Amino acid sequence: MQIILSGLHCDACETSVTEGLSRFLHVKHVRMVREGIEDNPWALIEVADSYERVWNVCNQLRGVFHRGKVIKLYIPLHQDNVYHDLEPHQRLDIF
Fold first, then answer.
1. Which residues are bridge partners to 46 per DSSP?
2. Which of 32-41, 61-70, 85-94 comes out lowest in average pLDDT?
3. How much is the average pLDDT of 21-47?
4. Contacts of 33 (CB under 8 A, 6+ apart)
């Protein structure tokens, strides 16, 4: 599953992002994207966690500041490799 992390500084690298998120997720791969504003890179992160786990971590880290910048985690839609903790026969009652 992939997530996008923004709100980084220009000195952020694959290793620092991996180390920072390893407390929360099983990070498989990080790719830094540095196009655009120099001091505003973002990271495309591949994780080996369920959608529910990633959703909970994204909500937990919402609004957290890192060195004066708020970090933002975004789950891109339409991912083929998204798996859920729910079994196919289980029902999720929302109302």
1. 2, 29
2. 85-94
3. 92
4. 41, 42, 43, 44
Instruction: Give the 3-state secondary structure of residue 2.
Output: strand
Q: Which of 55, 67, 70, 66 is nearest to 25 (CA)?
A: 55
Q: How many CB atoms lie within 10 A of CB 72?
A: 16
Contact 10, 42 (CB under 8 A): no
Task: Give dist(CA 28, CA 49) in Å, integer.
Answer: 10
Q: Do the Cβ atoms of 56 and 50 come closer than 8 Å?
A: no
CA distances from 34 to 15, 22, 43, 79, 89 (A): 15, 22, 9, 23, 43
- What residues contact residue 51 under an 8 Å CB cut-off, 6+ apart? 1, 75, 82, 83, 84, 85
